[in-house]
Amino acid sequence: MESALAQTYKPLEIIVVNDGSERETDILYRLEGAGRIKVVHQPNRGTASALNAGFRLAAGHYAAWLSSDDRFRPDKIERQVRFMQGGGWAISHTAFRLMNGEGIAESDPVLLPEGSMLQFYRSMLLSNTVNGCTVMMERTLFNRMGGFSEKLPYTHDYELWLRIVLSGYPIGYLREPLTDYRVHSAMGTAMHREEIQKELHSVHKTYIPRLQRLIATLEGEV
Amino acid sequence: MNKQRAQEISESPVMANVTYQGIQVYIQHVDPERETARIYSLLNKEDEMEVSVDALTEY
Description:
A: two-stranded parallel sheet, 17% strand, B: alpha+beta, 5-stranded antiparallel β-sheet, 1 helix, 5 strands, 15% helix
């Protein structure tokens, strides 16, 4: 949240969705009282529901989001807004850096291979190559798409990107690391892996044939 | 996948097409002695794992 408050872009509306956590609520109330953030409290309903709740309250033209353990670079919003306005994008994502438990980011960013939008679509056939915590999109696009599916705990973002691409909105890529992203070790082995596979299978079944048709059509035009 | 290739991929910042049990993963680090790799997936940030490099597939 500090990294959101420290953004160089102003004016910025900051919405915190507290998805059932009891931690650090004092700070939330203090910042809310000072008018610096808006807070929505909800019982733990998962990431998709929390993101949808945040969007319902948002008023800006563009919206971006991050998890409580991730961090925006100070100029993230400013640069991504400029990128989106310059390219006329309705949605975009960026490179990112992995961060360890102490908040130290790796020096090398994680980058998508350089290539065409067509190559990016091909990468989306297999899995999610868009890190949700790097995404910025027009609020109207989010609403038009009906937001994230709350039935999909692991693939809600992948599923939304697929719907967006299939609706004719290419996802712009700013190849600069503007988010530090923290991954956590699985406490057991292969935690949730079967559930993820099941969900992924169902998303693929619905969208992959359509994405393949779109790719084939675009290939025909090259 | 062999450990040399896994190491090459982990040292390059560019995301490669690697899967583990059918799920696309990114290789963060390779331990050449133990022949294991730290991997994560964008589908679940709480699923960073250490797995044998043999279990990784490049497509």
